[in-house]
């Protein structure tokens, strides 16, 4: 996952940050810190310094889509 996420961030210009969300992030929340994800994310040869500067965030809410939809609804109809 770290290698693929790093490849996508490098190819797509995700220099503002990478977010792992949805059910995947929730299921991996305990395993990810010790998995070598960060090392594989950064391992991009001459771009390693650039990759190290890209923040990676993990959304651990079990239903992030539903949470976001509720927030958007509340903003539209109650604010």
**Poorly predicted spans:** none
Into which percentage range does the β-strand content fall?
5-15%
- Discrete helix count: 5
- Coarse structural class: mainly alpha
Over all CA atoms, what is the radius of gyration? Answer: 15 Å
Straight-line N-to-C gap: 39 Å
Number of strands: 2
- The quaternary structure here is single chain
SSE topology string: HEHHHEH
Largest sheet: 2 strands, parallel
Strand order of the largest sheet: 1-2
What does the overall shape look like? elongated
Structural notes for this entry:
The longest helix has 15 residues, at 64-78. The protein is elongated, with a radius of gyration of 15 Å. It starts with a helix and ends with a helix. It has helices spanning 2-12, 22-28, 37-42, 48-52, 64-78, and strands spanning 18-20, 56-58. It is 56% helix and 8% strand. The chain has a two-stranded parallel ribbon.
